[in-house]
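Notes on consecutive records. When two proteins share a document, each keeps its own sequence and its own token line. Never mix them. Below: protein one.
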Amino acid sequence: MQLLNLKDTINFMSIRRFSMALSIILILGAFASFMTKGLNWGLDFTGGSLIEVSFDQSADLQKIRSVMDEEGFRDATVQNFGSSKDVLIRLAPIENADKTTADSKMVGNRIMQSLTAMDDTATMRRIEFVGPSVGGELREQGGLAMLTALICILIYVAMRFEWRFALGSVSALAHDVIITVGLFSVLGIEFDLTVLAAVLAVIGYSLNDTIVVSDRIRENFIKLRQGDAEEIINISLTQTLSRTMITSITTALVLFALLLMGGELIKGFAIALLFGVVIGTYSSVYVASSIALGLGISKEDLMPTVVEKEGADQDAMMP
């Protein structure tokens, strides 16, 4: 393996305190948004009915809200969806509705009759319904899925590398999840099952990046005989920088195309993954490595098995 000259090495760790302070500020900002604004939970988690209606001309949202009020749906959310001609109507769960599919169709037909009377070009594009109990269960299971993923990753990295690397990797992943979900809270973007899938994908993407960096750090700790822990980490990050940037940029280009051309249905998914790739690349370089360095990672933590093997070989060669 060709090692970089120290003068060609980027001193990433020189700003680790600033980067950690920035990460703490972003995490605190995310928690503050959670407590004050919360998440704009999608239909998958809250339950209720969702109706998408299209018109030939730009829709008059205020007039549609008046129609919904007249029909008794005063808490209905009416908003444009993708274009000014498409409207999304969200209704709260129907009380005492066991036969959810039948009730949903009845509500949809009732609303469409009123909208057609207002504008005969109104056309129903889709209608969905999720019961409140199902929505609550999905929210709980989604949270457990992320927690389980982080615990499994902690165990794997601790066994594969070293416990300091494990804590750094899991901290970086938790950092990515909190800040990505915090973005949705701050901007008020709907958080549904597709966004949850994107957050889980961010965990996988960030973990892959972190493992590559951690493996190079461990390799250089064993091969390099000079330099302290900070210098070796800087060398390792510099060696993996081109691979990290190429992977991140190519992934971001695809996600940017999805964001622009994919339509409203996958907009949240694309935003979550695009932001997750950016924050995941940052955390792989600074958060995971900085935490491992702050916990005192050193050559002695990775060398004992090699030294022991060398000693055993020398003993075997003695007559």
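Protein two starts on the next line and is unrelated to protein one.
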Amino acid sequence: MDITLMVNGVSRAVTVDPRMSLLDLLRERLALIGAKKGCDHGQCGACTVLIDGRRANSCLALAVAMDGREITTVEGLGHEDELHPLQTAFMEHDAFQCGYCTPGQLCSAAGMLGEPGPSAITGDMAADPDLTPEEIRERMSGNLCRCGAYVNIVSAIAEVAP
């Protein structure tokens, strides 16, 4: 099937098998290898990208369903000469060890910062709470880090949070 999607600000027309995941399209066909194949079941978050500004597990999204959508990968968050504030904060806070989960963590954090409203731990469900370390941990709970860099990841996100 022929689809056209906007990837990191560039329109891309591709022919895809209807069974192909967005993750496989990004990595195998578009050579954007930032998003990682971790569990391939949507449980680890290593493949997190932004779809129309909202975070999503690209291993669970069918490429054919992305026709006309805007996809942002870690490669599109910032540029070598001008990093995204989260990328800078992750470096300053040493928020990665092996780096495997880092692209997914960055995309998830970027999406999370734009998601208002309560989380599962918010006391007042009508509130838009401050992004305390507890709120950040809850909102980032779908992204796993095998190395255990969570403390530094939370502090890096907290530095950038409004």
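For the record: Residues 90 and 156 are 5 Å apart (CA to CA).
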